[in-house]
Amino acid sequence: MPLLPTALVLTTLLAPAPARFTWPLPPPHPVVRTFHAPATPFGPGHRGVDLAGAEGTPVLAAGDGVVVYAGAVAARTLVSVEHRGGLRTTYEPVAPAVAAGRPVRRGEVLGHLQPGHCASPCLHWGVRRGAEYLDPLRLVSPGRVRLLPLDAEIPARGG
Fold first, then answer.
1. Beta pairing, strands 103-104 & 49-52
2. Which of 21, 36, 129, 156 is surrounded by the fewest CB atoms within 10 Å?
3. Three-state secondary-structure class, residue 12
4. How many whole angstroms separate alpha carbon 141 and alpha carbon 52?
5. Structural domains of the chain, with CATH
6. Do the bridges between strand 132-134 and strand 58-60 make them parallel or antiparallel, or are there none, so unpaired?
7. What pLDDT sits at residue 7?
8. What would the mean pLDDT of 31-53 be, rounded to a whole number?
9. To 10 degrees, the CA torsion angle through 110, 111, 117, 118?
10. Residue 137: how many CA atoms within 13 Å on its side-chain side?
């Protein structure tokens, strides 16, 4: 396999990937409670993260998608967005400003933060793929950095 010129390797490795997801609240982003995956589908855990925010703060779509639910569930109101790749994000407690079926763009206002389950207002932000709950902070944190030697062979992509 041929070696690629050093400049091409550096350009390819250092080019930033386009952001697909962003924080669902304006900065700062204090995490009040972290993600704790349940050991079993109906077991105890915390299926998202809680982010501190002031009541009435705009809640933003973390990524492009389609609103699949906006309304009440039990005593809370929430918004749920389906994204490419089978991801679904959920935001609660939120007074919805969107309706089911509406396409939304990353950063678009979904609604406004309401008082909820935290001692002070906070947004519970969850994400899942199918039935598996994932840590939503992984959507907004940088991926693992890998460094390669300048003259490394780059494997061919595709088949």
1. unpaired
2. 156
3. helix
4. 18
5. 23-140 (2.70.70.10)
6. unpaired
7. 41
8. 88
9. 90
10. 14
- Say if residues 93 and 22 touch (Cβ distance below 8 Å): no
pLDDT by residue (tens digit) across 43-101? Answer: 887 889 999 999 999 999 999 999 999 999 988 899 999 999 999 999 999 999 999 99
- The reported pTM is 0.76
Q: Which of 52, 25, 14 is nearest to 110 (CA)?
A: 25
Token pair 């400049």: residue: 7
Residues in a beta bridge with 109: 60
Q: How far apart are the first and last CA of the chain?
A: 14
Q: Report the distance separating Cα 78 and Cα 113, nearest Å.
A: 10
The token duo for 158 is 């595709």
Answer for the pair 18, 63: CB distance below 8 angstroms, yes or no. Answer: no
Q: Please count the other Cβ atoms lying within 10 Å of the Cβ belonging to residue 58.
A: 17
- C-alpha neighbours within 13 Å on the C-beta side of residue 53: 29
The two tokens of residue 127 are 């994400």
Could you tell me the two tokens for 141?
A: 């944190």
